[in-house]
Design goal:
- The structure is a single chain.
- The strands form 2 sheets. Strands 1-8-5-4-2-3 form a 6-stranded parallel sheet, sandwiched between helices.
- The chain is built from 15 helices and 8 strands.
- It is about 50% helix and about 10% strand.
- It has helices spanning about 5-10, 35-45, 55-70, 85-100, 110-125, 165-170, 175-185, 190-200, 210-225, 235-255, 260-275, 280-295, 300-310, 320-330, 350-355; strands at about 25-30, 50-55, 75-80, 105-110, 125-130, 145-150, 150-155, 160-165.
- The protein is of the alpha/beta class.
Amino acid sequence: MSINDNRILKDKTFDKSRWIQLPRDVIAGHDALKQLPLVVSDLGMKGPLLVLSGKNTMDSVGQRVVNLLKDAHFEVDSLIVGQITYEEVTRVANYAQEKKAVLLIGVGGGRVIDIAKIVSYNIDIQFISVPTAASHDGIASSRASIHTEDGSVSVAAHPPLAIVADTELLASAPHRLTAAGYADTIANYTAILDWDSSIRETGEKGSEYATALSMIAAELMVENAHLIKEYDERAAWIVMKALFASGVAMSIAGSSRPASGGEHKFAHMLEKIAPGQVLHGEACGLGTILSMYLHGGDWRRIRDSLRMIGAPTTPKELGLSDEEVIEALVRAKEIRPERRTIFDFITEDEARDAVHALYEVD
């Protein structure tokens, strides 16, 4: 039999390739920060390191990271970063290149880690994620949000080469940040519903693996809501695990689709209408309740779990008016109009009914 008779070699019954980047090392637990020098050594990085952090965090955790690395005989520099703007990203990128950094280490919350991952992507060097609050699923993802005159936009970025999550450090963060991380992950429920709808109606590509992982993260939150306590290391561990799974789901999908649907479009619009008044995760949590209500799903289960952990579930609890939230619902379709979600088809009356349902008394 000749090779031409071997149909296994001739028929391309499966001809598909994908490039998926995932974290190589993930260290999480009590005192995990002390293992950072070992992680850097394991990654085989040779050359200057640059630690990025916010002003307040640099004075505490950032400097601690610098000292740990210097004690391990690494060449280390540090830089305080500001808001996520194109100008700030350019400034940080220029500084990193000037210092010939071979590795960035983002120490802080979502803002700092997003800057680190965007700069990492733009100048083609790797970065390590060192979260100081479990408030953001960007801890492990390959997407980042950047502020523009038209609001926040999602951009491609590098996922971290490694994650070092010290649960003692995460547990010391204000509970509002942990609750926001919880809410950001529970949003996966409605993100998947919107994605599935778009797959059916528009032929958008899906990912069964990313979908499954995203749902696991959301279920982990709801099933353990009773354990999410203030300044509790176990709570930090649970939320961190879910945020990591959610971030990996996005990397597998090659987009933020597994964790970002109409509820995120609503959140970005709400942040635009009422800048500085709500945390991103809090807005996503409220958007998830509203989206599930419109999808006809069990929105009360989501609302009750958010109530249990002390997250806001009404406009009033966010310090907003009902009209601001209704406007954000109706205008959510203006954010990333190419991404189909249930909010693309909502009327003002439907939005008003959904917001009024938030105040329902059990």
